[in-house]
Amino acid sequence: MQVCELCRRPESGLTKHHLIPRTRHRNKRVKKLFSREEMSGRVLWLCRPCHHHIHRVLDEKQLALEYNTRDKLLAHPEIVQFVDWLANKPAGFKPRSSR
After folding, report:
1. Average pLDDT value for residue range 22-48
2. In degrees rounded to 5, what are phi and psi of residue 23?
3. Percent above pLDDT 90 for the chain
4. What end-to-end distance do the CA atoms of the chain give, in Å?
5. Is residue 50 within 8 Å of residue 11, measured between CB atoms?
6. Which of 60, 72, 93, 97 has the fewest Cβ atoms nearer than 10 Å?
7. Which domain of life does the UniProt lineage start with (predicted)?
């Protein structure tokens, strides 16, 4: 079993989160800021709840330009609040959607 890189819970079936979203790789501003290797190599392995929450809270432009590292994600108040709450839940726990 692997460990989610945000909440640190052991989970099977982690998902690959591109810290610089692939949809932004052709953007001129993003190309100036990051090399091709950085764009494709900056990833986190996350549990589904953490991954889903990131994309619920932040749009892809924000992710590419402002929240493109683990530390920056954990500096966002909504993300860190969710991660702190989720960290004590058992492996396999799936929170209810707040839609």
Report:
1. 93
2. -65, -15
3. 85
4. 30
5. no
6. 97
7. Bacteria
Both tokens of 80, joined, read: 């860190």
Angle at which helix 77-86 crosses helix 48-57, to 10 degrees, equals: 160
DSSP characters over 38-75? HHHH-EEEE-HHHHHHHHHHS-HHHHHHT--SHHHHHH
User: Rounded mean pLDDT of the chain?
Assistant: 93
Report if pTM > 0.85. yes
CA gap 19, 42 in Å, rounded: 5
Kind and range of the H or E run holding 10: strand 10-11
Tokens matching residue 53: 């929450």
